[in-house]
Amino acid sequence: MDVRPAIFVVGLLLATLAVVMCIPAIYDYAIGHSDWEVFAVAAGTTFFVGVTMALTTRTNNMKVTIRHAFLITTTSWLALTIFASLPFAFSDLDMSVTDAFFEAMSGITTTGSTVIIGLDEAPPGILLWRALLQWLGGIGIIVMGIAVLPMLQVGGMQLFRMESSDQSEKVMPRAAQIATAIGVIYMTLTFIWVLFYWLAGMSGFDAFAHGMTTIATGGFSTYDESIAYFDSSLIEYIATAGMLIGALPFILYLRMLQGQWLSVPRDSQVQWFILFVASLIVVASAYLVIHTAEEPLEALRLTSFNIVSIITGTGYVSDDYGIWGTFSPALFFFIMFVGGCAGSTTCGIKVFRFQVLYAAARTQIQHLMQPHGVFIPYFNKRPVSEEVIISVLSFFFVWFFTFALLALGLSMLGLDFVTALSSAATSVANVGPALGPIAGPSGNFAGFPDAAKWLMAFGMLLGRLELFTVIVLFTRNFWRP
Fold first, then answer.
1. What average pLDDT does range 72-93 have in this prediction?
2. How high is the mean pLDDT of the chain?
3. Is-contact 196 230, C-beta < 8 A?
4. Phi and psi based region of residue 267 (left: phi greater than 0; alpha: psi -120 to 50; beta: remaining)
5. What residues does 378 pair with on adjacent strands?
6. 396 is a domain residue
7. Which residues contact 451 (CB under 8 A, 6 or more apart)?
8. Short-list 223, 211, 37, CA closest to 127
9. How far is 2 from 157, CA to CA, in rounded Å?
10. Of 34, 137, 192, 334, which residue is most buried, by most CB within 10 angstroms?
11. Residue 290 class from Cβ within 10 Å (0-12 exposed, 13-18 middle, 19+ buried)?
12. pLDDT per residue as tens digits for the range 283-339
């Protein structure tokens, strides 16, 4: 296989990363922090490597195939992570190679797990860089979910290929125009939430950082206590709304701007997601009121923020839900798997896959009751083919198999059962915090063995790229001519 197209694209992305890396360099220079030199050198190195890769592989008749798309997707995420880790490794934090790679992977996959202790005193350029990485990862996964994964037919994503490529349903004539328009929407929403946070009492720096990580559903904060540091109900409600906005399909926002005002509320995936989240909030709030004698409004505030944060994979925390009672850890563990809608910045399994499986199971039950009847599963009022159902079933199997292997691997490295299980879930689902006293809402992953951090970083990559996109590279047939 001719790998020049992959090298060319990765080179362009690295050059773009280098340009973004100049933002924290300029900020550190403006406030007089010495880390500006680290960012400047890292940006220069990254730009040089990226431009060299692009120029040496550029051809006039470049042909990109499906195999190239698989290769480009995985290698670009890996290359970006490697070069994004340079500022972490050489900054005043003096992080190890393992910690720097883990933090960069957590940022660019919008996972939100961290190994940095003392964020309150961390260099401002590093805090800004973490937020920028998650913001870039968020727009990257939206574009990938709209343009790349449907083409690769990963995990049932081919359901959305018709919506983006069929001439009668096309939102805009070309995929590049769609990506550009969604990028503008993404930046606009980010600016709006930065403004909301600032008006709610955050400093300009904190508002900028949290605005980016909220819409990207990433969860990196500038403080160890996360959103709890601000002790503000208004800020929590703003964050909850922002996380929900980031969890819905961005293609529907584009349709709304084009006059289809009911695109969002009429979408079955959105309906299922909102109904499920609302049900969870009601149940969890009732549990808090009954078992901890919490005030109803306070219980509603705590549960709505933290449930939305975990189910969308953002990872912000406003309270340690691990101490809410025996029911809460189990609830938060299981909602880690769910995720938001396809075509959003969220992670996890995604709501549409549960819808497809539900439709298939319902059809199977009807067939058992009426063996000679003809029953067809539907998603969003469209029939679902057997190919899509098999694709979704395969995704579920591989997802949970990967989760089990990762949990066993973390257990072998000395982590206790709860920590290993929840850390495996939070990495593959790209959520952020795990459960337990070590890596729970009030802890982090700094104390994990290096081998465990590498395992989790690989799990983040697998989860963010929908598993098959990475796994296919390890098959023999992929590399055959």
1. 95
2. 91
3. no
4. beta
5. 383
6. no
7. 413
8. 223
9. 27
10. 137
11. exposed
12. 999 999 998 888 999 999 999 999 999 999 999 999 988 888 889 999 999 999 999
What is the chain's length?
A: 481
In 10 A of CB 472, how many CB atoms? 17
Largest CA distance in the chain: 77
Select from 411, 403, 394, 402 the least CA-distant residue to 449.
411
Distance CA 177, CA 160 (A): 17
Q: Give the range with max mean pLDDT: 147-156, 167-176, 364-373.
A: 364-373
CB 313 within 8 A of CB 217: yes
Helix residue ranges per DSSP H, 317-444: 327-335, 351-369, 386-412, 417-428, 436-439
Long-range pairs for 386-389: beta carbons < 8 A, 24 or more residues apart: 387/158, 388/156, 388/158, 388/159, 388/356, 389/156, 389/356, 389/357, 389/360
C-alpha R_g of the chain = 22
Taking Cα atoms as reference points, which of 352, 354, 299 lies closest to residue 325?
299
Which is more confident, 387 or 157?
A: 387
Q: How many Cα atoms within 13 Å fall on the side-chain side of residue 403?
A: 23
In whole angstroms, what is the distance from residue 385 CA to residue 378 CA? 9
Domain of residue 31: give its range.
Answer: 4-257
Q: Does any domain span residue 149? A: yes
pLDDT of residue 172: 44
- The tally of domains found in the chain comes to 1
Q: Give the pLDDT confidence score for residue 400 in this predicted structure.
A: 96
- pLDDT above 50 (res 343): yes
Q: Which two tokens stand for residue 251?
A: 């293609």
Question: 354: closest CA among 327, 377, 330?
Answer: 377
- Closest by CA position to 336, among listed 325, 347, 326, 344: 347
Residue 82 covered by a domain: yes
59 φ, ψ to 5°? -135, 160
Distance separating alpha carbons of residues 177 and 171, to the nearest angstrom: 9
Q: Please give the helix or strand (H or E) that residue 382 lies within, else none.
A: strand 382-383
- What are the backbone angles phi and psi of residue 236, rounded to the nearest 5°? -65, -40
* pLDDT value of position 170: 47
Which residue is listed with tokens 């030199």? 37
Per-residue confidence (pLDDT) for residue 238, from 0 to 100: 97
Task: Evaluate whether residue 420 is within a structural domain.
Answer: no
How far apart are alpha carbons 87 and 185 in whole angstroms? 29
Q: How confident is the model at residue 161 (pLDDT cuts 50, 70, 90)?
A: low
pLDDT at residue 233 in the model = 95
